[in-house]
Amino acid sequence: MNILFVCTGNTCRSPMAEALLRHYSNGKIEVQSAGIYAAYGSPASAQSIEVLKDEGISCNHKSQPLTEDLVEWADLILTMTTQHKQAIISQFPSKLKNVHTIKEHVSDHEETLDKLDEVYDKIEQLRARIYETDDGNHAEKQALFTKMQDLIAEAERLEQSMPVMDVSDPFGGPKELYCQTFKELDELVQKLTEKYS
Asked: Fewest beta carbons within 10 Å, which of 11, 30, 108, 149?
């Protein structure tokens, strides 16, 4: 199982999540992290490293941007916010079913998530049919587009019915804020580890 954590700069939340999953999974899960707007080679923030060290968790991290190779490597992409998730889906629409916020992936909203997966499947099937449809057949193509728009609206309604699925960003804040984010991630990553152990 290859899991990729994604946040904005790959220096706070996703490195903490990566270090936590390495710690809890004992090498049973391959894990990396990346940032939508990350540069190559920056260390994790000093506060992130400090908070992890306080908990006895090592973090030897160098940031990296999200790339197509990383997206292909990952069986599961877990983002820190809904915005990160949407950015990845818009850039890699074929990975729709592999991308979730970490909170929604380990939440107790299984029924809604199952419905969302069904809707995502239908969207992918329609997308494939649209590409296969002869360009000369405008009426059929338009009907498929309309169906797809309806399904996208349904997916948005389902997503909005769920509670906030973002992990708070401690960037630039005091150590206490990093401690809060650590606690939030610690609980989520433990649930994730139980799910795949």
From this structure: 108
